[in-house]
Give the backbone structure.
Amino acid sequence: MPKPPKKQPNQTQLSFNLALRTSASDTDGEVSLDLSEGALLVEEDELNESEFEDEELDEEEEDWGFGRQQRYFTVSELTQYLETVLNEDPILGNTLVVKGELSNVKRSARGHIYFTLKDPEASVGGIIWASLAKRLAFDIEDGLEVYLTGQVEIYAPSGTYSIVAQSLEPVGVGSLQLAFQQTKERLEAEGLFLPEFKKSLPAFPERIGIITSSTGAVIHDMLRVIRRKNQQVDVLLHPVKVQGEGAAEEIAAAIRELNYPDYALDVLIVARGGGSFEDLFCFSDEQVVRAIFASDIPIITGIGHEPDYSLADAVADYSASTPTAAAEAAVPDTVQLAQILEGMRQDLANGIVGSLYFAEQQFDRAATALVDSFRARLDDTGHRLVNAQQNFEHESTRFFQALEQRLSVYAAELDAFSPLATLARGYAIARTPQGHVITSPQDVTKGDALTLILRDGQITCEVTHDKPC
Amino acid sequence: MTNPVDTDTSPSFSESFTTLEAIVSQFKSGTPSLEDAMVLFEDGVRHIKLCQAQLGKARGRVEELVKTLQADGEVVTQPFSE
């Protein structure tokens, strides 16, 4: 018979040995199984050492001394027996705590979570029923190291055992801290905390909504701070539970409610006084964070006291360190605003005066420039006039001088041809009254008047004989 | 919600305030022409008056939301003592 694979015979031997012992004790009418730690924890080495041999088996089979029909269990009997043993075990029969790392985490459609709990040497299957899964603050994910409180159960159809969880605590951190971290990482990856999504707060809110507890000092402290700075603002309080079961749902619902346009709110404050991490945890709940992110109205948070930090603070449009600091941030100081307005009124007045002055200066400059340019043009015309006059005088003098000169030349020339010299010698020129010079008796008839031009005068006479002599 | 300033036609305080700041900064950043300056000035004075009217409003109310026990848990408000 060939040797079977190494592990298989060992397992068979274990079962076989168990069956042996059971049979033995049955004969005595009592169960005396040794279920102490040493007996249960069979080391691997030990398993390897106890080699599986056909001969030994045969011998033991023979040693039983029972009828063949009594020398085996049915699988169901075996499993049933194992269950009995398990339930009666002082350790395994009760809830126990197992530390290990989660892997192969799978969720069923009904919300149950199946996983493997492992350490470097071993692994065991586990189940978290949906009822528990819903209550867990943190996410069950691969790689998470946990203390799992639960009970070992055997699943007969597959012959396996697993641990059914009753509670789960992460190793190293509290479950709420882990839940905080996981929610933070998840929402951060979605970009919910990015600064570009933050809305700016209104400069002058006329109506503000406050989501907090209506009892206790916090709301009254906030109202006092608001009224100290601002008498005009309307306040609408939405009372909510601020810790414990159902608080997150109430806070998220209040944020959505106050977003209805009918309330006409300009800004919301989500606030709570100081408390433990657990007390404040509802403000890190995913639904609160998402409600704040989805709000159309800017939200200011004032949760706990510095250095308390919630995810609501991370997602809020403005996060104040305390509720009163949130109230302080929500409303402007009206006295201060009035001063700022007065300042702006002054600036406006200065501005308009400045513009007027500037305009006046511009006008002055323009007017001066205009006059200057006119004057310059006038001056220019004057200069040209003077020049023209001078030119005229000069040219006209020149002209007349030239004319005079020419006249005297003409006069001299004329003088040479003058009949006056002839007249001086006793001659006369006879002319008709019309000025025609008479050069022949034919030119006149009897009775015609004649003018005789002599050297120094003229004589008017009459023709008495009209025939040539 | 009674409001002495008709919010339907008048700008809100914030709007007026922002406009005012813009007008003032225009005056401060340079000297606008007289025509522009007159328009800006008149606009500015109007917004200052609007803002001052808001600041002079009566004391605001403090109310608390309460869910009635009637059907639908209708939400109503009641005065909340400061």
Summary: DSSP finds 15 helices and 13 strands in chain A. The mean pLDDT of chain A is 82.
